[in-house]
Amino acid sequence: MASPQQGVEAMWTIGRLTGVAGVIAFVTLIGAGCSKQAVQSGVGDQALVQEGTKAASPQTGASRGTGPSAGMREETIVPGLLPEAPGTGGRPTEPLSGLEPVQPGTAPSEERLKEGTLVAKATPSDATRSQVERMQREDAATAAAGLEDVYFAFDSWKLTEEGKQALGKAAQWLKSNNDQRVTIEGHCDERGTSAYNLVLGSKRAKVVESYLQSFGVDEGRLTVTSFGKERPVCKEREESCYRLNRRAHLVVRTK
Q1: Alpha helix (H) residue ranges in 153-193
Q2: What is the pLDDT of residue 84?
């Protein structure tokens, strides 16, 4: 039978052995845990790397050469286009081969448009200017000839005695100036339709023409036209004004 001292020594020995085993077991557990954590950490890092690859911009992916298989969009480079330089607003730093740069504000079409607009605003058309000048010359020639208007009663194209006297003077002037031609304009007041007044104005002009021919004036020197109520000389709505608009107006034609 073992002595108490031997029993204590045996227990101490077992404790030492147990302690060593415990330490070994503890170390083993710690190692396993670290390995597991390392494995998990590696998986997480790989996931982060993959997520970062997917989130990378097309420019970053292109510079790293990841390609479409890494979730990147494939970029197409169009030949002939120059790279964009910082601060140029998307314009190439140099012109394309064979083309000369166009300076701002000097495009030919823009210059033509600008000049055309200025001309249109500043001056009338040649036709309008020529017509105005011709009318001014005719008015001056008519005034110099002393030709008078012939007036008519309401809704009538019958010549009055005053009208015949005025036309007698006009016939004498025409016979004295064989190279002159006259246009006879028929006019009406505003009452009645435009169509009716055009016909009435034409009748007034023709009766004047016939009366001048009776004095021996060649019909080839006379031209008749009608403006109806479109060219009144007075616009007041009263008889004193209407009377002035019912007229035949003689105009000396000029070249």
Answers
A1: 161-176
A2: 44
HSE at residue 114, side-chain half, CA atoms within 13 A, is: 7
Indicate the pLDDT class of residue 143, thresholds 50, 70 and 90: very high
Contacts of 150 (CB under 8 A, 6+ apart): 159, 160, 163, 166, 167, 204, 208, 247, 248, 250
Report whether 249 contacts 152 (CB < 8 A).
no
Partners of residue 151 on adjacent β-strands = 247
3-class DSSP state of 136 = helix
**pLDDT number for residue 254:** 84
User: CA 90, CA 145: separation in Å to the nearest integer?
Assistant: 74
Residue that is written with structure tokens 């479109």 in the block: 230
Q: DSSP letter string over 54-79? A: HHS-HHHHHHHT--GGGTPPPP-PPT
**What's residue 69's pLDDT?**
41
**174: how many CB neighbours lie within 10 A of its CB?**
23
Tell the burial category of 56 from Cβ atoms under 10 Å away from its Cβ (0-12, 13-18, 19+). middle
What is the rounded CA–CA span in Å between residue 42 and residue 90?
A: 44
| Arithmetic mean of pLDDT over the chain | 70
The predicted structure's pLDDT at residue 239 = 94
Calculate the CA dihedral of residues 127, 128, 130, 135 and round it to 10 degrees: 140
8-state DSSP, 155: T
Average pLDDT over residues 150-173: 96
Q: Is the pLDDT of residue 39 over 50?
A: no
In this structure, are strands 222-228 and 182-187 parallel, antiparallel, or unpaired? parallel
Q: How far apart are CA 25 and CA 19, in angstroms?
A: 10
Any idea what the Cα angle at residue 160 is, between residues 196 and 179, rounded to 5°? 85
